[in-house]
Fold these 2 entries.
Entry 1:
Amino acid sequence: MKLKNDNSETEKARIIEINEGDTIEFISEPGPLAGKERSEKETSKSKEEITQEDRSQGHTEGGQEICEAEAERTQEKVDPREEEIKKLKARLQKKETEVKNLRKEKEEWKDKYLRALAEMDNARKRLEREKEEFARFALSEFLKDLLSVVDNLERALETRDETDGRPFQEGVAMIYRQLLDLLRKQGVKPIERQDNKFDPNIHQALISEEAEGIEEPEVAEVLQKGYFLHDRLLRPALVKVFVPRKNQ
């Protein structure tokens, strides 16, 4: 084993070589130069630590400013959820408007439907009335012609000759009654003369004659009977009328 002393400016070391070149290094106490160098290193290290601390502090302050700026930018940014909520609210409002319009349209169509139903019901009732009236008055022309036969029978009865004999008179009277009964079954009835007042709705004046002591036209004589078919005028009565004298 060999011992080797290695003196340098920083420190003294003893190296013991063992066996095949392996060495063990023993660090001896530092010398005066080593102490000075260590002091300078410590001073430099302190300065570096102070510088690093300043840098760290500056970095911290800068980072804080950056964080604050980032926070401000984050606040300035719109939250995606809020934007989605706004969109959903807008869509909801649009749908509510559409529903409101549809309800209004529904009410309008409902009103039109009810009106159409009412009109159809009125039309049906009107057609039924017209059908009934047609059935009741379909034979109007035939019955009017038949009344002419009745008129002739009445005249025959009024102007009969006493020499014709009673059997003929009774036969004509029987035919007359049968015709009246047939007409009555069909809804034909004569206009009954209630008073002498002239009514242009049921009377037709063939002859007019001035008379004293009257203020309105009056029926003087019925020349031909008038008839109703149910509640409708079938034929007006032909009459002679007295009218007020002009200079009375």
Note: The CA atoms of residues 152 and 158 lie 10 Å apart.
Entry 2:
Amino acid sequence: LDGGYEVNETWLTDVRVPVENLVGEENKGWTYAKFLLAHERSGIAGVARSKRGVEKLREIAANETLDGEPLIDDLDFARKVSQLEIDLAALEITELRTLAGEQAGKGPGPESSILKIKGTEIQQRLTELTLEAVGSYSAPYYGSIANDTGSNEYPIGPDYAHDSAATYFNMRKTSIYGGSNEIQRNIITKMILGL
């Protein structure tokens, strides 16, 4: 969507690994992969990155105006940002609880799926609010077209708006990689609810 290629699907059939290259026990590859994915999903939540993103969003909203007033003073926009901050604080607490459990010897469980889902939803909402804040300045996305054609025209609008559309499109992938959010919901249903 943003001109880059970062997400793919790989299928392996009839794989053979020489004994000297075997990692762990034979026929336990999927078990090891699930363990590693659980740790990856916790990291995908991106709490620190999202906290910085909210700070940047607040700075942008203080500079942009709506009806002559700073956008951050608009009650509807401020409510959306506040809700995002509340959800982010809840995510951070969940992440800290999960880390405390791991330090106490508890392996990653369904909490990593919850972190992944909520973290990626927050990241995507953050990019949506950023687009809303910069308005039409997000429209002139040049992306790879400018690189391919050798254009040297400077994008229109403030610097913070230049990559907002590209970031928005790029962040759509977060609900896919590391196991799609739909799959994570199935994992939660199975591991927590036993369904």
Note: The helical segments are 29-44, 47-63, 75-103, 111-134, 143-149, 164-170, 181-193.
